[in-house]
Amino acid sequence: MPELPEVETVRRTLAPVVEGRTVAGVSFAWPRTCAGDPRATEEGLRGQRIERLERYGKYLLFRLRRSGHESLLVVHLRMTGNLIVNGAPGEFTRASMSLDDGTAVVFQDVRKFGRWQWSERLPARLAALGPEPLEIGRDEFVA
């Protein structure tokens, strides 16, 4: 399973590529990758501008905006998931996102455990997580 430092590395690699871009399309090669209705998610993500890519614990949060309305794409890599910029679709491609500049972000996941969830707000399971480990101060650490 990718640990927190690996997820942060993915975020740092992807952020300069995706931030400020608009989602041209999303497709789920394996529909269960989508936590929710895959068709509604594909349609809902199209046209969204990616404002920021953040990491919250082991989750990647794509902060989105369209017509002044904010939403999130929450991605969890789980055990074997990986996001590859301009990767060729292959046997383990579970989802892909195309951007307005022609860039493709391909989600490869051998074990099929990874999930994408489009949401209006931070899902409850994430909101219940403790403090961000890389941002806590000494007082929080020893508490």
Keywords:
single chain; 143 residues; alpha+beta; N-terminal domain of MutM-like DNA repair proteins; four-stranded antiparallel beta sheet; 4 helices; 8 strands; globular
Present the secondary structure layout.
Blueprint: H1 4-18, E1 23-28, H2 38-45, E2 49-56, E3 59-66, E4 69-76, E5 81-85, E6 93-99, E7 104-109, E8 115-119, H3 124-127, H4 138-142
Antiparallel strand pairs: 1-6, 2-3, 3-4, 4-8, 5-7, 6-7
What features would you describe in this structure?
With 143 residues, the chain is an alpha+beta fold. It has one domain (4-142): N-terminal domain of MutM-like DNA repair proteins (Alpha-Beta Barrel). 22% of the residues lie in helices and 37% in strands. The chain contains four helices and eight strands. It has helices at 4-18, 38-45, 124-127, 138-142, and strands at residues 23-28, 49-56, 59-66, 69-76, 81-85, 93-99, 104-109, 115-119. Strands 1-6-7-5 form a four-stranded antiparallel beta sheet. The longest helix is centred in the N-terminal third of the chain and has 15 residues, at 4-18. The radius of gyration is 15 Å and the shape is globular. The protein starts with a helix and ends with a helix.
